[in-house]
Amino acid sequence: MWGVVSQKVLAQSLQRLRPAASAWRGFASGTKEINVREALNSALDEEMSADPKVFLMGEEVGEYQGAYKISKGLLEKYGPERVLDTPITEAGFTGIGVGAAYYGLKPIVEFMTFNFSMQAIDHIINSAAKSNYMSAGQISVPIVFRGPNGAAAGVGAQHSHCYAAWYASCPGLKVLSPYSSEDARGLLKAAIRDPDPVVFLENELLYGESFPVSDEVLDSSFCIPIGKAKIEREGKDVTITAFSKMVGYALKAAETLEKEGISAEVINLRSIRPLDRATINSSVRKTGRLVTVEEGFPQHGVGAEICTSVVEDSFGYLDAPVERITGADVPMPYAANLERMAVPQVNSLLFFYC
């Protein structure tokens, strides 16, 4: 167990956090492309500049500038009191982060992979998620738990689990999962500003992927509302819901289906909890069909919750049974060929029309 830190010592440590003067980074006018890594980095930078209570902590976030370079340049700009390198002890630094949130600060806790958040799940669930309710609203816990989630490439079962369904089943948490650079930037800003604990599930394979963004997205005031899905592509024949990397697969499948005369509507969930049931059900009532896509396991998954929502609210509009496309019900294999078979591919989204 992590040692008990006296209130006096913790207070003295946290009082050292000071505002850091930093102008918002400028971007060229007009639409441009930035990758997801840059979007996350700029969101962190702007929120740390705007609010001196925001700080980042985790393994290698400072001197190494992040295992995936998400925190590049932040240590130099804000100093070691706001960009804190921690020991390899998730239970320890997550507990400190939750305590700092109790104190009124706004910690951002980075996990090198969300599989490692299992070491800290007691703090995430029992200390962060439940405190506002159990204190009758007296204790707010404004903390963000972020890092890569789901399958990467050749990293085995202990680095490839999707935790969206796990955390989304817990009252008191909000769970977000971005796909594009716009999602990453707008949702992370919303998460940092939110008064409740937020689990922010990124995807390692998306960090280097670039997306076009508008001037509005690049503005420092830009923020995406939590709990609102985005219709990435409109259609009339079938609704496909997805989140994170699977949104890209769904869009590619929709392009293939279009060549066959099938019009697919693709919904980027963005928010796993709260779930935008209204947008999902409105789409299904238009198309009459639903396919859900996720990397996670089939049993008790995000897709299962979406299907239940549609059966409860829009059963009479369905023209065919709902379909769930998920990862295989096995721990992730290490071998590349088996790994591909264990997670959905673009062709997996086409079988229901074969």
Automatic annotation (TrEMBL):
Entry keywords, A to Z: Metal-binding, Mitochondrion, Oxidoreductase, Potassium, Pyruvate, Thiamine pyrophosphate, Transit peptide
Protein name: Pyruvate dehydrogenase E1 component subunit beta
Catalysed reactions, as listed in the record: N(6)-[(R)-lipoyl]-L-lysyl-[protein] + pyruvate + H(+) = N(6)-[(R)-S(8)-acetyldihydrolipoyl]-L-lysyl-[protein] + CO2
Compartment(s): Mitochondrion matrix
GO cellular component terms given for this protein: mitochondrial matrix
Limits of the Transketolase-like pyrimidine-binding domain: 34-209
Keyword Oxidoreductase: yes
